[in-house]
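G., the chain you wanted modeled:
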Amino acid sequence: MQKYFLLIITHYVKIFFVFDYMNTHNTMKKHLLLMTLAVGFFHFAYAARGDKNKPTWLVGFYGGVNFTQPSVLNTFSVTNHLGPTASIAPKDYSSSLSNMGHQFGFAMFYPAFGNLHLGLLPSYNTYQYSYNGEQSWNEETGATLNKETDHTQKLRYFEIPLSIRYYVGTANFKPYVEGIVTYGMMHTADKTANTNFIRINGSSSSTVQRTSLKSDYSDSYITSQFKLGFGTGISYDLNQIILMLGASYNININNVTNEKNRYANDLFVGSSYDVQDDLNLHTLKINLSVIFPISKITKRSEVECNYFKQQREKRRR
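Predicted structure as tokens:
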């Protein structure tokens, strides 16, 4: 059975190389993504077929929300001080609770050694983070012109997390802990910049201009990412299905910013005077999973979900 697990991993590694090659064609990547998930599912089903002496496979799906907190490695800016009449405030990144995204995917686990399970969890993920930038100039009239911009970035990745999960106890209701290694391939990214120009003169202020920009921002990020994570959760076995509620904390081990393209986006560099910092992304994920145990039917030499097996036996009675 272990050789099938290695075969599946090899299959996904090949797919990721194809994703790199096809990076400029998003439509083909979407189709390839669906084919990858389908092929991976049937790989697991075939691996369990007719193997009555091995533990049951667990196959299902999951979804949930995530909260992202950027960690700044190096800060960059378009403008610089030329004298005492100008000031640039550092970027103020929002807290993780303000940066909510979501994810969904398939879950496939193999109980390799008792309570120790090996899992593959291909998923599609949307992450979001935001920050505020402020600049000001002193005018000859004595007034101050403030430029305040809210920046919001949304990143979408196709990811393959590999999980090593250990369940505590043997009861139907049991907790678990896990370690996670994730490889991700960027699908798309976009950026929105909402800017207010405000003139302050003594105790009075007025809005001079409001602008809003939105554009593709994919070239500002590298196409791949690696993550390390750990998690915990609870599992409740209802016999026909297993419900799991879990949380995991994941950290990028590489800078997600494309340094070569930092100043390449003329729209945001020239209009909002903004460029991307070097960043690591720290993400808290909360997922609800619905898992189906896969039983081996020796007589039929096929894979069958416990629920459908019980329904078939009821009809025979």
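Residues 1-6, 8-25, 296-301 have pLDDT under 50 and may be disordered.

Shout if anything looks off.
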